[in-house]
Amino acid sequence: MYANILPIRTVGADREQLIAVCRSLQAPETDLARVRSLPGLPYLVFPLRVAMVLQPGRPEFVSAEKIRKSLDILNSGLAGAHVQFVLVQTDTIYANVTIPVLKQDGYEAYYRFSEMYDTGDTCTLYLVDNDEHLCENYACSRTMGFANILQTSTNNVVMDKFFVDDHKILVHEFGHYFGLYHTAETFFGIETVSGENCRTAGDRICDTPADPGELYNVYVNYSGCEMKGFKEEETGLEYHPIIQNYMSYYAPCYMRQFSFTEGQMDVVFSAATRVRHNQIVALATAPVFK
User: Which of 35, 133, 191, 227 is 20 to 30 Å from the Cα of 52, by its Cα?
Assistant: First the structure.
């Protein structure tokens, strides 16, 4: 629905965009004056509801300490996009639901669950059990979490309880929530290594280089955090994706932090102010994370 939300922006444009959002929310003139006077952009603060989904007879809770740690990880990851979350509500939902159950019938079960339990203008982080068969036919996989890409028909992110405080996965899923695709996305076509089609193919963000995907991770040197030796068949040009990007599917690099590019942060900020602006509850001059 929001496939074209890939702006080229400047700080001045950001500020005017944010002022327009404040006006749409009927903010007082004092707030508008504050936005204009700040030396940098303020942080957009969004409310977050965390809902623990418990199966009958299987009360596997996530501790409050782990939830706080997860929120700090999320806010640290989104800080460059001037987006932050504040925990406003925690709930417990008793339902015979696991991640494989939610994925049934092409995620129809997930849409029914979302319609039943989502709440208004507050994003919900559902913490769900996962009983997938991890290894079958000599291959191992696990759905660690998922989220719709900038859709307003649902208002949530689903996470496997085990991975809620992972330093990549939660930020990755909220990247989807704010409109980001995988760096190896092929839905819009395959991005060329030259980048000549970077605005129309791949993730459609030009400062994320072409990414062949995690199937080629045998070419990745995780100590140096780079792919070496894998070339585009048609041109012979070598792939150099950003291995430690939040929206990639590669393993963590040695001593490297995950990150977004400037273009990805542009998309998150634009989505926050253009599509999800009705959820903004405050403007902050400093990040919320500790």
Answer: 133
